Amino acid sequence: MTSQRDVFEVSGPVHLTSVNWNCLHYQRSVAASLVQGAYVLERDRQQNRQGSEACAPPWWESFHFEVIRKLIDDSDFSIFGAIHEYRPPISLQNSTVTKAPRFVIVFRGTITKKESVSRDVKLDLHLLRNDLHQTSRFEIAMQAVRALVSAFGHQNVWVAGHSLGAAMVTLAGKIMAKDGMNIKAFLFNPPFLSAPIERIKDKKVKQGIRIASSFITAGLALAVKGPHHKSDSFRKLSSWVPYLFVNQADDICSSYVGYFDHRKKMEEIGAGNIGKLATQNSVRDLFLSAFGMESESLHLLPSANLTVNSSPAPDFKHAHGIHQWWRPDVDLQSKVYLYD
């Protein structure tokens, strides 16, 4: 039975009858719709929905995109993403179209259906172990990103993903940024692997925990790496400003709110250098480094354009879902954090 959430006409951004590509609201909504299309592509495959019964095409065709390649996992042959090309009709040629992406590469998150859940959960575990980069699915994704950027330039390629897919986008974006190519990236509910401090309601307690954690992390960094250590990796990433979309009620990604805001708080109390040192290290990475094993936690980002959804969420499914990011009635606040 087809879920109503898969049907564009029922659950999609049908209110977007035209797209202003100069506006982040429209960019976010279309990017999220394309990511949802990747989810529906895989569910179409699992349920053998073909031809007129397929639900996926409207999720990209409504915005004049075409799928030029499906990204298929080599382990279970599930569809985990897609490459879209923007092909607007001549009647839509206007000044904002020049701001549209030529290509968008999207990656879905975990699907809890028997045909794909085993592989997806294994990848979630790789994410927890911080070795997602060693998986064949990511290698396929990275090859697709590199090939498209090599052929058409990084300015013509956007990447977008949700949940596990957002982690893949983060990893791919970091790799490209270290090579000097800042690719435009949309991260919907990206995983932040740490204790869910955002659950704490008392602001003073929460701030106290963060300050103590920063001093501990900075102290460990000085002990392990020395007082003159500078993170070249973090410096190279500082000019890459991905678009992060998080929900305050989603424990998987909500810690990004405190991660960036706390750096500003540390500057306000005169401990900016400690805050900067702490924000580019994790206790886990430092312990591994002490034993000669290099590791770089995926969630450590120097800069970001962070959008927070503060609208009430009835449950985790809604707080973590992709559908929220094209709703016209959500309470969103955006702020740019640049690492100096």
UniProtKB/TrEMBL annotation:
One of its GO terms (biological process) is lipid metabolic process. It holds the Pfam family Lipase_3. Residues 142-188 form the Fungal lipase-type domain. InterPro entries: AB_hydrolase_fold, Fungal_lipase-type. It comes from the Eukaryota. This is Lipase (Class 3).
